[in-house]
Amino acid sequence: MEISALSHTDTEDKSRETLLEFPDNRLLIDLCGEFDRNLALVERKLGVQILRRGNRLAVVGEDGADELAERVLRGLYQGLDTGHAIGTGEIDGAIRLALSAAGSGARADGQMDMFGDKSVEIVTRKKSVIPRTEAQRAYVRNLFEHELAFSIGPAGTGKTYLAVAAGVSMFIRGRVDRIVLSRPAVEAGERLGFLPGDMKEKVDPYMQPLYDALQDCLPSRQIAKFIEEKKIEIAPLAFMRGRTLHNCFVVLDEAQNATEMQMKMFLTRLGEGSRMVVTGDLSQVDLPRGQTSGLADAERRLLGIEGISFDRFSSRDVVRHPLVARIVDAYEGETAAT
User: Fold this and answer.
1) Per-residue pLDDT tens for 220-233?
2) Residue pair 101/71 in contact by the 8 Å Cβ criterion
3) How far is C-alpha 236 from the geometric centre of its chain's CA atoms?
């Protein structure tokens, strides 16, 4: 649907008013959100004022800010028009992409293709997952284009979530027969032996983030069924020894806590028709002092090898609560200063 726009500049305070007309009032209501909370978020993030006038939105802001807001609103409306729901996460992602495009010199009135680029949309049984930053977009492309993909960066950047979603997408499309999700069961101050229960009950808490990601992509009954049929396997890294994984989508999470020998063992499990993803955060190594992280060692050895991709994330790619990005920056700044 065509969105028309008219602009007027106030030469005294250098602010501009851009009037956007949206053809579908029902979609405009969803765009604005309950009590206009979506518009309020865009206003707060970009420093503009957005006024509703019938089926039009008037965007008032300094030259540049108003264009960014226009790009964001156009993109979100386009998403609604193609059947995507929008919430805080989608708005935040649209703003990040608009700022990134502006920084690269792209035209502010160009199409903001957060929802339009199907090559980076991950379709699962429960939802469609859309990358929210340029780094996430590049990562998703690598997940589908490379047989071995590494992603390194701080917590909250979507490394594991996107990998699991991509695995589920390939599984339900029949591109792989199984999903294998693994983590090193390394204690971060606790001792496994002192936890109650049998081995599965001791290990499951370490695997919970993988279960959480699966539950966002598949109905709970299907997860239980696939686990029972061993089409989905969630196991500690130590359980991978001696296996060859054919026609699988394999994810190693928290790989910074794998030793050099464990990493070599894991990577050599790759069989015919399989894809492997390794994720980790080198700022959160829980290995004993003096022991080299297998993830750092693998990056040193494998960077630049054809068929293997490396994606690095920073605090700018954190898609959790905004405070998480500030916390990451605070810790990284202190580490750099020491």
Assistant:
1) 999 999 999 999 99
2) yes
3) 23
pLDDT in tens, 48-69: 999 988 888 999 988 788 888 8
How many whole angstroms separate alpha carbon 179 and alpha carbon 99? 36
CB 75 within 8 A of CB 301: no
Contact status, residue 289 vs residue 120, Cβ threshold 8 Å: no
Q: Give pLDDT, residue 109.
A: 45
In this structure, how many other beta carbons lie within 10 angstroms of the beta carbon of residue 283? 14
Q: Are 268 and 216 in contact (CB under 8 A)?
A: no
Chain CA centroid to CA 83, Å? 20
Q: Name residue 330's amino acid.
A: A
CA-to-CA dists, residue 76 to 22, 42, 43, 204, 320, angstroms: 12, 11, 14, 39, 20
Other Cβ atoms closer than 10 A to 272: 8
Lowest mean pLDDT across 113-117, 172-176, 258-262, 304-308: 113-117
pLDDT at 195: 56
Q: Which two tokens stand for residue 191?
A: 């001792």
What would the DSSP string read from start to end of 87-139? -HHHHHHHHHHHHHHHHTT--TTS---TTT-GGGPEE-SS-EE---SHHHHHH
Of 108-122, 158-172, 315-329, the range with the lowest mean pLDDT is 108-122
Residue pair 148/155 in contact (Cβ under 8 Å)? The answer is no
pTM for the model stands at 0.78
CA distances from 314 to 156, 241, 328 (A): 10, 32, 9
From CA 246, how far away is CA 219, in angstroms rounded? 25
Q: How remote is the C-alpha of 8 from its chain's centroid?
A: 38
Which segment of 81-95, 100-114, 266-280 scores lowest on mean pLDDT? 100-114
d(CA 112, CA 109): 8
How many CB atoms lie under 10 A from the CB of residue 13?
Answer: 9
**What integer pLDDT is reported at residue 93 of this predicted model?**
80
Cα–Cα distances (Å) from 1 to 23, 35, 72, in that order, read: 7, 25, 16
